[in-house]
Amino acid sequence: MSALQKNLLDGATANGNGTPIRWRGGKGRFWLLGTMGGASAKIQWSLDDDQTGSWFDAKADGTAQSLSAAGNVETTELPNGWLRAVVSGATGTTDLDSGIVSLS
User: What is the average pLDDT score of the chain?
Assistant: First the structure.
């Protein structure tokens, strides 16, 4: 099976929610790169793509899957639904790109 990659952030410079992407379910590898400027990014899951709906932090062993430095982390098994990246702690130098690669 070939890996499917989807972008979650493209040049994010401020705190906030990325655009939701459709997720077919399974494990993934969440990656983050760019100029952190004190920021971190986490991945969230929802049953629908409504930005005002219910979003839940993707967790592994009870800990939100978040990155505060360039790198990547494997997600837990996430059900079919929607994913987005959420940026917090951004400063004037923050410029982030992120995405997820399907592992299943």
Answer: 90
Structure-token pair, residue 8 = 């979650």
Query: Both tokens of residue 64?
Result: 């939100």
Q: Strands across the sheet with 5-12, in order?
A: 5-12, 95-102, 28-35, 71-74
- Ordered by start, the domain boundaries in the chain are 5-102
Class assignment of domain 5-102? mainly beta
The candidate with the shortest Cα–Cα distance to 55, out of 46, 65, 63, is 46
Structure pTM?
Answer: 0.89
pLDDT class of 2 with cuts at 50, 70, 90: low
